[in-house]
Amino acid sequence: MSNRKLLNSELKRLTPEEFKTTAKNPVAMILDNIRSQHNIGSAFRTADAFRLERIALCGISSTPPSPEIHKTALGAEDSIDWEYFANTEDAVNHLKINHYIPIAIEQTENSIPLDKFVPDYRQKYALVFGNEVKGVRQSVVDLCTHSIEIPQFGVKHSLNVSVSMGIVLWHFYGHLKSDH
Q: Could you tell me the residue range of the domain that residue 68 belongs to?
């Protein structure tokens, strides 16, 4: 059994042009006042990896072009469609009008553990990720249909937002693969 590391040329990567025209998973990410451009770059790269439809950058979240975003996104900011909203609430309402189900990724009184939430591939979802310190603001949580939390068992009960994105999007990808 070979365990040779694959070369970049063997990874069957899509070109940015191919990516734009390929089927996407019916998921949008909403970034609610993300302060770190590295976390924003990571959001683009993770959205690219799981073929998301779009990202909404809100409030204090920086937008491309930015050397700091590019440093982490590695060009994914050019393949993922994105839009800026001054207010996260406007982004949530915009996506609701376009038939996305808004879900806050946040610890709330009635949040659903991620492993218990089964996305329906016939639905479109808008996943809201919050500020690195304050999380998803209550006014935004109030606009969401559900809250999902990642079960955690240590002292902090807190993950870096880019780590949370990877975990949640992997879960959704497993249920919503664009090849249904």
A: 22-176
